[in-house]
What does this fold into?
Amino acid sequence: MDSLIELEGIYFNSEDFEILTDISLSIPRGKCTIIMGSSGCGKSTLLKVIAGIYPPDSGTIRLNGRDFQDLSSRELNDYRKRSGFIFQDSALWENTSVYNNIALPLDYHFRELSKDEIKEKVMKLINYVGFTDSVKLRPARLSAGEKKVISFIRAIITDPEIIFADDPVQSMDNQFMKKLFHIFSEMKTNNHTIVAVSHDTHLVSQLADYLIILRKGRLVIEGDFNLVKQSNEPYVKDILSKVLGEAASFDTELLDLLNE
It folds into this structure.
């Protein structure tokens, strides 16, 4: 497997509580990796550790085979320039407009772009999701689902090679969800790397190539979706039961369409 990011012996503590315990795993390049597990098992924390947002208390993170700690400031900045993060709580700047929130990564990482070039990129995505009338609003005027859409657009505005997503479809209505799925599918087709935490059966069943399953901060299993779903581990079977039902339903519908 061509690994983009590797974790070895990762521990992460919050105050006196151990959230992640001895995590070693790999994130395949150009695939969609989904992190799953019961509530409170450390999924979001693991995602932020993989993304480099949370430094671990001990252990090693390697990017393209190189220890994160050995990367120069320029290399780290380039990595962040090539990646985007969709936060579970959206993490929007409340004191500025929707437009400025989305434009922020372009303003920061692509200072060579003119205001007109930035506006063109922002409005292209705004128009696609149907938020044209909301660009001047502040996030406080938006619903939780709308905030999540803005967080998603902000994360992909730079056309990142790597996208990290924490419960990306949470609170979204079906219209926005379909558009998000379309964008994710295009990213997969173009060999972008996606790492996401998700409980959504449709997202997992249709997009996942690789699965990571946690339990109480420990790795239970990782691997190709088609291999993990054959596990006889009761916890794994329980986590995947709804996902496999969704996948089977999709396969049946697809087969019916082909027969027609």
